[in-house]
Amino acid sequence: MSSAKAKETRTPRLNELFDDLSATLKDFIRKHHVTYEEYHRTLAFLTEAGEKGEIPLLLDVFLEVTVDDVDHSGRPGTATTVEGPYYVAGAPELKSPCVLPHRANEPGDVLIFSGTVRGTDGAALGGAVVDFWQADAEGRYSHFNIATAEAPFNLRAKVASDHHGHYEMQTWVPSAYEIPKSGPTGMLIKALGGHPWRPAHLHVRVTHPGFAPLTTQVFLKDDPWIDSDVVGAVKQSLIMGMTRHDSAAELKKRGLSKPFFTLDYDFVLPHDMAKAA
Q1: Which of 75, 123, 129, 130 is nearest to 270 (CA)?
Q2: Contacts of 250 by beta carbon, 8 Å cutoff, 6+ apart
Q3: pTM (2 d.p.)
Q4: Which of 29, 58, 91, 227 gives the lowest tally of CB atoms within 10 Å of its CB?
Q5: 261 vs 243: CA distance, rounded Å
């Protein structure tokens, strides 16, 4: 390829990022006097992570929070946080109020998750889509460590808000869980003196035409890992407490036979200024 042709195929943004990353890594090697032994151990680690499909996990644990902070810096409305590796497209589309897809004997306690979706001007956003997913009461995600055939889209759905912007879904209280720890990512976390736990949380993507999409998580107050999330994704405004309900009248109204919990959270979306322009 001629030098002129090579210049034509250059991607300015890619070149800028790669050149800066390369310079940063070279400075790091010089600063810390990285040896050949350490270099080859790093190559072996990255090779193993790739062979075991853990590159996304590795980057999610150590870098995704920073990408989220930079990409959404100064954004108004509900705080964003990381998507994580367990999102699955194509979840069933349901209208509020609804019961999420679940197994006949879904473990744990029932949770009624509800709230309102509105814009930063306070206007309710009817027809907003709350794309929802979570781990079950044993810390497992459908399509990953719950067999899809056993429970397709278990505790996953796209729930449309009503004309008042209100959404309500019946799900189950999630559990804290450990990220995969037997592979290279887990071994690195252990070597660094860390732990592999994530506090209990609910995942959401909220969308509405004309508004910037929101990807975030709602964390359960008093979880033992709330202050030491291995991913570092917890933000104070995303921590919420649940309310326990055990009266006979409430149980009858819900058609339930044992106490349940409620959690209310309002999502606020900013206008999509890029599209408005």
Answers
A1: 75
A2: 260
A3: 0.91
A4: 227
A5: 5
